[in-house]
What we know:
One of its GO terms (molecular function) is hydrolase activity, acting on glycosyl bonds. By secondary structure, the protein is of the alpha/beta class. The protein is built from 18 helices and 24 strands.
Amino acid sequence: MFKKICFVFILSISLHTLMAQENTPFTKPPEWSKQAIWYQIFVERFNNGDPTNDPKRENISIPTENIVPDNWAVTPWTMEWYGHDTWEKDKPFQETVQYRRYGGDLQGVINKLDYLQNLGVNALFINPLNDAPSLHKYDARNYHHIDVNFGPDPIGDNKIIAAENPVDPATWQWTAADKLFLQLVQEVHKRGMKIIMDYSWNHTGILFWAWQDILKHQQQSPYKDWYSINSFDDPATPQNEFSYTGWLNIPSLPEWKKVDITTPKVNGFPYEGNINSGAKKHIFDVTKRWLSPNGITANGIDGFRLDVADQIGMGFWRDFRTYVRGIQPNAYLIGEIWWESWPDHLMDPTPYTKGDVFDAVMFYQAYRPARYFFAKTSYEIDAAQFKDSLEFQWNRLIKDNRYAMMNVSSTHDAPRLLSDFYNTNKYKYNATPNSDAAYKTGKPDAETYTRLRLYLVHLFTTVGAPQIWNGEEMGMWGGDDPHPRKPLWWKEYSFQPENRNNFQPGPAVYDKVGFNQQQFDWYKKLTAIRANNPVLSNGDIAFLTASGKMLSYKRYNDTDEIIVLFNLEKSTKTFTLPAKATYLNLLTNKTISGNSCSLPTLSSAVLKKIQ
């Protein structure tokens, strides 16, 4: 096992060095993105490495929406998820959960980099770090600074921020939180890993410095044209006529003003347009700050994940790609495009992946049919339908981009995999106990674990880069937002048992929760298989069997071949192999000989020819 870990580490180091030397053609994704094994981090719930910087009530309060209780306090990391802290007493769970803070921070991420490297990941996607009052941090106070509570000196950082002219990058300083993030970037790069930041260039929060200036000065503000404002207040009247557009009509998320729109702007579809030039310049200034801190690109990040990308015009995205690649030719850009129409039709990624906008999108389009094949749901499909779904998605993409796709399965915005496989609902529809009283929130049954592990074999052997959401490898479960955002179940902690009947009437039934070593070991085995067999990152794919619930395919190139088999039938089935040979099953380290392989129900094999 020690030799295998070392090999993966050496492979990732050499990859990082190679990619630092070769510039990626403008229209292509960087080669490193095809070999990435992604881990998505939600910092506030990842790990509390520095309790001295834990947020205080004023850090999370928004003056116009100040409903944070006076006796608010940081929630203990090991408290039962559905329990109530002192300040939550006699209040509904859904009312207080968004105000919870557990104290996760950047030091907590740095402290766990060895853990992540041991797991086998080589690329980090970190949810928003920008300074913001909310849990999710898409409501920025400042784009150009890391959240003060993610660093070691919140009070000092606020003083630094207050002394700047936020519109003038020449006045920007590096806060303690900023410097700690740059240290994280260096530590990540030392390990041969990559790191990308998450931003929403579509909107800010109402505490954003430019918005605050507008609220104070109305039409006299130099930023009045940055936002989508419908009307300003007339001081001659008693009422407040100030009106503006918030993202999805959410008042706390005012939108940047969209300009030069030449095609219909419809949710779920791309459109031609741009962003106000002042806001755009600020966005570009922030982009440069993180890509090339102090003018040193080697110390910067490796790309961006762009939130709600369909809300912004394609002209902006083309300009953004040109600007980013002009600074860092090997940067990776991935957009979040999701629903064309909820809850049945996902967006078409094609317009965004032609070489002039993004390198990839978060590929929910490949996960949804996989769930319907591997999980036991009310929307079951067979192997032939699954094959057709995947080929449809892949065939409309340029080949290079297929391999660069981030194959997301669960995220901060979706149910955790174990709960998604345990419930039979349509994907992401009524996936919380609030929307469906019958939604199962407790520990899944044994069959769910088995089926999920089969899916994970597919995830790590299919086309595109696999992604692991914050704590999935620990065996965590939970429905849709807010439930996938529980604090992580680190092995060193003992957690209170969790009430699985949390929203349902009847007696409480408690599940023991905590780090699942068996689940971790399965993920680690799969990351090693992926890293040690480059054909799984760059090889072609050909389906061999797609009948009933039997599926097999091969990944191949000029020098290597891997055969992957799945039996989801109710009895043992025999697969015909492409050639008579001796194969090593990489999942079990056992060999088989011949031109056939029998698998019991609900099992898989990953075969490599050895002679």
